[in-house]
Design a protein that fits this description.
Elements lengths: L1 H18 L4 E4 L24 H4 L4 E5 L2 E5 L9 E8 L3 E7 L12 H13 L3 H7 L4 E7 L6 H14 L3 E4 L3 H14 L5 E5 L2 H8 L1 H9 L7 E7 L7 H4 L7 E4 L5 H11 L5 H10 L5 H13 L4 H12 L8 H5 L2 H4 L12
Parallel strand pairs: 1-5, 4-7, 6-9, 6-10, 7-8, 8-9
Antiparallel strand pairs: 2-3, 4-5
Helix pairs in contact: 6-8, 7-8, 10-11, 10-12, 12-13
């Protein structure tokens, strides 16, 4: 009997594995691969019996051909939102809904960001023109620039806009799995818009190799009605055939450090009680600062009670460094650069 139980379990797992059911899993911790078992499939227990504890809170049936599988619930369509894609031997491809807040994003008057947003929004209105010429309705944008220049904020703004249109933003964690998941998504939902995000694409290429990443753009599983948006701090690490070939990346745009007006709006938004004269000083003294540096100015001065001039000096020195570890303990031991000196003031919420 034990042998029969194992055979039944194996047979059920084979059916589910080939089912490729799209499962919407809420993931409050934003861990996009909590059940991914591409390289380490779950072990099957020697004495496998199917019961309520194994199937969870099942209430209905998912149907695949003539096969029926118990599930908690079914939905006719994915809710709009941000997703990552996973793969598990027991479930096949599934989508993990990311619990993110997009309401606090700031639209800044940066010309490069505004140009990219306007261009993509225009692209979303041009389906008939693309169809007329027989082209796939897709677009690729590569954003490059120094760390903290606002690339991630722009990506999040695009994500917010596509969700407001009833579509999806999908973050690439594993290009091969993601390509299959996107193809499956497009088969089930053929018309809803998708933005595919590849943050730090140079790191993705190093991890999975260039061919795997390129297959996402123009392989046999490429999809329609999609915008690919990638970011990198190091465009020189990417092969020219990736960044100099339209249809992969049609637009390559540098996102520089925040302008005076962008820094002013950011500081006003994050510190609305800052007096006007103080705001003017802060804007003038933070030339070349990233948004991360601006945040640290507020944290250090207002939350930790440090002197503004000391904070500016410390952050200016940090900006001169390409690789902090190369400077060793001598650099890190200097108190005025450590970032923790000064008396803490009362309460600060971020």
């Amino acid at each position: 009997m034990e042998h029969d139980n194992i055979s039944e379990a194996d047979e059920l797992r084979r059916h589910i594995s080939t089912f490729q059911e799209t499962v919407v899993r809420s993931n409050d911790n934003n861990d996009s691969r909590v059940e991914t078992c591409e390289t380490e499939p779950p072990k099957v227990r020697a004495n496998f019996n199917i019961g309520p504890s194994d199937t969870g809170d099942v209430r209905m049936w998912a149907v695949n051909g003539g096969n029926y599988f118990p599930c908690e619930r079914t939905v006719p369509a994915l809710p709009p939102g941000q997703y990552s894609i996973g793969r598990c031997e027991a479930r096949g491809i599934y989508f993990i809904k990311k619990n993110v807040c997009l309401d606090e994003l700031i639209i800044l008057p940066d010309s490069a960001s505004a140009e990219i947003l306007a261009g993509i929004e225009h692209f979303w209105t041009q389906e008939k023109t693309f169809r007329k010429f027989g082209f796939l309705w897709k677009r690729g944008v590569l954003l490059w620039g120094p760390a903290g220049s606002g690339k991630t904020s722009l990506v999040q703004l695009l994500s917010k806009k596509i969700v407001e249109l009833g579509g999806f933003s999908v973050y690439v964690d594993h290009p091969e799995i993601d390509a299959k998941g996107l193809e499956l998504l497009r088969r089930i939902e053929p018309t809803r818009p998708i933005v595919v995000m590849l943050e730090d694409i140079d790191a993705i290429v190093r991890r999975f190799n260039e061919a795997t990443v390129l297959a996402l753009f123009d392989g046999e599983l490429q999809i329609d009605n999609v915008t690919y948006v990638a970011t990198t701090n190091y465009p020189g690490r990417l092969d020219p055939r990736m960044i100099n070939r339209p249809s992969r990346f049609d637009v390559v745009k540098k996102i520089g450090m925040p302008s005076d007006s962008s820094r002013r709006i950011y500081l006003q938004h994050k510190h609305p009680t800052l007096p006007q004269k103080t705001l003017d000083v802060w804007v003038n003294q933070t030339q070349g600062f990233s948004f991360a540096h601006l945040k640290e100015v507020i944290v250090a001065v207002e939350c930790l009670g440090q002197k503004f001039d000391d904070v500016i000096e410390r952050l200016t020195e940090m900006m001169k460094l390409d690789h902090l570890p190369e400077y060793g303990e001598d650099y890190k031991s200097k108190s005025k650069f450590a970032g923790f000196s000064g008396a803490a003031s009362s309460g600060c919420q971020q």
